[in-house]
Amino acid sequence: MAAKLQTIEAVVGIDGTVRLNKAIHLERPVQAVVTLLVDDVDDVAVEGGSGGSFEAAAEKVFDKHEELFRKLAQ
Fold this sequence. Notes:
The chain contains one helix and two strands, in the order E-E-H. By secondary structure, it is α+β, with helices and mostly antiparallel strands. A hairpin with a 5-residue loop joins strand 1 (10-12) and strand 2 (18-20).
């Protein structure tokens, strides 16, 4: 079965915690992709990326998006 996307609005706190704007019910744990809506990429530092840069982390995210879209197309 191909994966389906469900968009849910949320707020990411400065400590990285994600708070959904509405309650949801899931039957099991699911994978999620978090897209940050930022005005200035200098406001974001991502740990674990090449040099901790937002751009390096974004490259990894886009790779994951491509993988996700391939799954959706199946």
